[in-house]
Amino acid sequence: MLNLTIDGKKVEAQPGWTLLDTARQYGIEIPTLCFHEAVEPFGACRMCVVELKQGDRSRLVASCVYPAEEGLEVYTSSEKVNNVRRWILEMLLSECPASKEIQALAAEYGVTSTRFAVHNPDEQCILCGLCSRVCAQVVKASAISTVGRGVHKQVGAPYLTPTDACVACGCCVTVCPTGAMRSRFDAVRGLPKVVLAHGAR
Amino acid sequence: MQVTAKDSADLRLGSLEELEKLRSELRAAEDPDQTKIIVCHGTGCMANNSPAVTRALREALAKAGQDIKVMPGIKTTGCHGFCSRGPLVIIKPMNIFYQQVKADDAEDIVQKTILNGEPVVRLLYVHPQTKETIQTTEDIPFYSGQQRVVLQNIGQIDPTDIQDALKAGAYAGLAKTLTTMKPSQVIEAVTKSGLRGRGGAGFPTGVKWSLAAKHKGGQKYVLCNADEGDPGAFMDRSVMEGDPHAVVEGMIIGGYAIGADTGYVYVRAEYPLAIRHLEKALADARAYGLLGQNILGSGFDFDISINRGAGAFVCGEETALMRSVEGKVGEPVPRPPYPSDKGLFGKPSVLNNVETWANVSRILDKGADWFASLGTAKSKGTKVFALVGKVNNVGLVEVPMGISLRDIVMKIGGGVPGSDHFKAVQTGGPSGGCLPWKDADLPVDFDSLIEAGSMMGSGGMIVMDDRDCMVDVAKYFLGFLEEESCGKCLPCRLGVPRLRETLTRFSKGEGTLQDIDDLYSMAEAIKAGSLCALGGTAPNSVLSTLRYFRDEYEAHILEHRCPAGVCKDLITYSIDPEVCTGCRACARACPQGAISGEKKKPHAIDESLCIRCGMCMESCKFGAIQVS
C-alpha cells in the first residue's frame, strides 16, 4: 500500500492506481470530461488537474493519468487548480455554448458567462476524443477518429463521409460527456446493418 | 570517393588500429603545399548560387591549366555561418576570406590569388565601422569572437566525403569508447562533462542516459531530434548538412552507453540537403565498418535509420516525436511514464537533439574535463545560435556559455543597423521570450535566461530594433503556436487562440488595463494546465514582453498608439513636404496608387487608399516618409 495525503487527508492507494482512482475511492470529488472507466485515460481535458506540493515547489498534474506515489501531497481544489478549471470552463462556454453539461459544470465553478467570442452557438463538442477512443478500444471498430490538427480538429469518419465501419452501437453517444455525439451520429454511420421491420429508413 | 557495394568489403575497418592507420595514411597523402579553394555549399550560400561559383572556378582553373604549378583542389563544404555575406569562398592555407562572390569573380580569383598569390581586394570583407579591409577569416570580428566546438569541422570538411571527415578526426571518440570504456564509464564521462540537452530544456544528458541504462537488457532505442521548427532557427540543419558524421558518431556512442542497437533520426522533410548528407554519411559509415554489425570489431551492433517528419512543430516534443516514429498521430502523451522507462514502441529510449549528439562525439574524443572547462558553472560547453533579425551579421555563431547578449549581438553580430543598441532579443523560439537592452549584459546560459523570463531553447536568436512592436511580436508567436498546437489538451487548443485574440484587440487600440490583468491569470492557467511544453511555454512571449515592455502595451490600449509604428490600425503614413524631392519612387512603389503629386514637387498620401504596407517608406531614399 502507498501512503499519501489528498487535501490533508491521509489515504492509502494500491500500486497502479492513479490519483483519480485514489481520490474516488475516498469519495473525494474531482471533475473530469475526457475520462471514462471503459477506456485508457488520456489526460487531455485537464479538468482533473490537481496540485502536487513538495516543499516550496508545486506543480499541476492530470490526476487521471498520474500514478499514486508514496508520500505525495495532493490538493484537489487549490486556487491554482481552480484557476485552471475556471479558465477552461469559460473558454468552453464560448467554444461549445450549446452544451448543457458544460454550462452546469461551469456554474459549479462560478463561471456563468464568457468574455470570449462565440463562433458557433450550436456547438457542443469539446473534442475530448472519448467517442473515438471507445470506438477503437472497446468496440474495436475504429470507425471514427479526430481529424485534423489543433484549431482545425474535428470528430469524424474517414474523409468526413459516413462509413460502414460504424456498427451503430451507440457507444460513442453513451460516453460523450457533452451530448455532442447525439447530433453527429448520423453523419458518421453508414446504412443500418439491420433493416427495421417497419421500414423506418 | 564513391563507395560501391562491390568494394565495400575492402573498406571495412576491423579495429581501432585499422581506423587510426587509415587516418594517418589519409593525412600523410595530403600535399601540404597544395592550395585549396573552399566554396560554401550550405543552404544559404547555395540559394545565393554558390554552385555556379564552383563551376566557374573549375572552368577558370582549367583555362589557366598549364600556368599553375600545383593544381588547387576545390572543396565544397557545409555552412560557414556568415550567411548574410554569402556566397563565401576561402583560399587555404592562406585563409583568404572572399565574400559575396559571383561566378564572374572566378577568373579574377584564379588569375590573381592562385597564380600570383595576391588577394582580390573587392571581394574582401570591409569592417563596417572602421572601414578597414580584412583579408583572413580569423581577423573578422564575426569569427574571432566565436569558439567552435560543435561547428569545428563545418566549413572545413566536405560533408559527403567520409575520408575528409576522418582526416578531421571523425570517429576517434567512438573508437576510444568502444575499445577502452565500459558503457557505465561512458555515462560517467558524459555526466562529468556537465553536458545539458541542447534542444531547449537543458536536462543533464548523463542523467537521462543513466535512467535508460538502468533497465538491464531488452530492446532500447536512441533517437535524434532533428525536427528543428523555431522560426528563424537553422543550427541543427547546418550541423547535419556540414558535419553529419558528428551526429552519427554521437548516436552510436549513446547506443553503446545505454545498450541500444537501433537509432532513429527524426528530421523534417523540409531539410532535403540535411537528409541527403545524413543518408550518405550513414551509407559510408556502414561501408567502413563504423555502423552496423560488429562496429570496429568490438562486437557492438548498432544501426540508424532516418525518419522524415511532415513538419509539425509539436513533433519536436519528445513523446509526440516518438508517436510519430511509431506511425501514430504526432500528439504528446502525459509523463510519467517517462521515455527513459517507456518510450518508443514502449521501450526505454533516449532522445537527444542534433547539437547534443555532436557534443557527445567531442566529449568522448577530447575528454569530459576539457568540456567541463568551457562555459559557466552550471552550463558547460558552447552553444550554437542562429543570429537573425535586425543585426548586421546574420548567420550561425557558436559561443561559450555565459557570454553576454551584448557580445553576441554587438561584437560578433556587428551591431544593429542604424542604431547603437537593440530593443529586444528574442531567444528560445515561440516558447521563449524577449530580453530588453537593459539586460544586454545578461550571461547567456540555461538558468540566467529562464530567470529573465525567456529560455535557451534550441538556439534561435532574433534581434529587434525600435521599429519592432512588442505587442505585434507576441501576437506573431502566439499565431504560430495557435497553428501548430496539436489540439489534444484544452488549455493549449482553446487558450492560445484566445491569448492571440486579446493581443489582436490590443493591436487595434482596443481593450482595457483589466484585460492585461486577465492575461496574467489566463497565462498562468495555460502554463500550469497544459499537457506538454508547447502549451506550457506558449504564454512566455506575452509574459516576457509584458514584463519588460508594459509601457508599450499601455500605449496601445490607453493612447491608441503603436510606438514602433507597426500595428496597422494605429498608424498613418505621411510625406514630409520639406524633405520630399518629388522623385516619384514612392508613387511607383505604392501598390494602391495612393500617392500622388507632380514630378519634382512634394507628394502626398491619400489616407483613404493607404493600406499601410510601408512600401513607400522602404522606397524613399530621403527619409521623407513619416509614420505616426
TL;DR of this structure?
The complex is a heterodimer of chains A (201) and B (628). Chain A is of the alpha+beta class and 201 residues long.
Structure description:
The complex is a heterodimer of chains A (201) and B (628). With 201 residues, chain A is an alpha+beta fold. Helices cover 27% and strands 15% of the residues of chain A. Chain A has six helices and seven strands. In chain A, the strands form two sheets. In chain A, strands 2-1-5-3-4 form a five-stranded mixed beta sheet, sandwiched between helices. Chain A has a two-stranded antiparallel ribbon with strand order 6-7. In chain A, strand 1 (2-6) and strand 2 form a beta hairpin. Helix content of chain B is 40%, strand content 13%. Chain B is built from 25 helices and 19 strands. In chain B, the strands form six sheets. Chain B has a five-stranded mixed beta sheet. A four-stranded mixed beta sheet of chain B has the order 2-1-3-4, with helices on one face. In chain B, strands 9-8-7-10 form a four-stranded parallel beta sheet, with helices on both faces. In chain B, a hairpin with a 7-residue loop joins strand 17 and strand 18. In chain B, helix 8 (172-180) packs parallel to helix 12 (244-258). The longest helix of chain B is centred in the C-terminal third of the chain and has 19 residues, at 540-558. The radius of gyration of chain B is 27 Å and the shape is globular.
